[in-house]
Design brief:
single chain; 208 residues; Aspartate Aminotransferase, domain 1; 2 domains; 5 strands; 12% strand
Length: 208
């Protein structure tokens, strides 16, 4: 039987709360409700911060993020779920994840969402595998151009494994506003120039 995920970094809830406080009222209400639903579904669910609010239980379960006109709620193992209510309506062509797009808190059905979250946990317990058939990462032209201007960053990025490279590309492509895109481009180049990946600061140092 799979073992439960370790406790998240202590600062994770603080980061989530800070993020919530930065949101406009309409999306803040939506995200607060999603957070409440997730955390009340199963006592073993752990709240973490990766590229945003992220929840784990026997593996990755779900996460949410606010955009300019909608909030996206994603199940990271959605391809292994049944979706009996047909709620997956956003980014449904992803190899593993499935998302729901919301624009108002009134659209949330707590009972149904808890059923989905419980199914996601059950899928993890059965041993959901994120086996990638095609490990080609399509790098957006803007990111490729920015990296090419920094030889050290480009060399590091090109040498990354599929997972790390894909994570950086998704971090950039998830940005919708031009200002956010520019900020993320700069961050990615700086990280790669320093020989770091997106979540290095959360990794525990190796012990001897």
């Amino acid at each position: 039987m799979p073992t439960a995920m370790p406790n998240p970094p202590k600062e994770a809830p603080d980061k989530v709360l800070h993020y919530l406080e930065s949101l406009p009222e309409w999306s803040q209400k939506l995200c607060k409700k999603l957070r409440q639903i997730i955390l009340s579904t199963d006592p073993e669910i752990k709240e973490e911060w990766k590229w945003g609010p992220h929840y784990s239980c026997y593996g990755m379960v779900c996460g949410w993020g606010a955009f300019q006109k909608h909030v996206k709620f994603t199940f990271f193992n959605g391809s292994g779920m049944k979706d009996p209510k047909g709620l997956f309506n956003h980014c449904v062509d992803n190899e593993f994840s499935r998302s729901m797009k919301y624009t108002d808190v009134s659209e949330l059905d707590e009972t149904v969402l808890k059923t989905y979250i419980k199914e996601s946990i059950a899928v993890n317990k059965k041993g959901f595998k994120r086996t990638v058939s095609d490990k080609t990462v399509v790098v957006p032209e803007e990111l490729e151009t920015a990296l090419s201007k920094n030889k050290k960053a480009k060399t590091f990025f090109d040498g990354l494994t599929y997972g790390y490279k894909k994570e950086l590309v998704e971090y950039f492509t998830m940005a919708k506003q031009e200002k956010t895109k520019a900020e993320r481009l700069a961050k990615i180049v700086a990280l790669c120039a320093d020989g770091k990946t997106l979540n290095d600061k959360y990794k525990k140092p190796a012990t001897t």
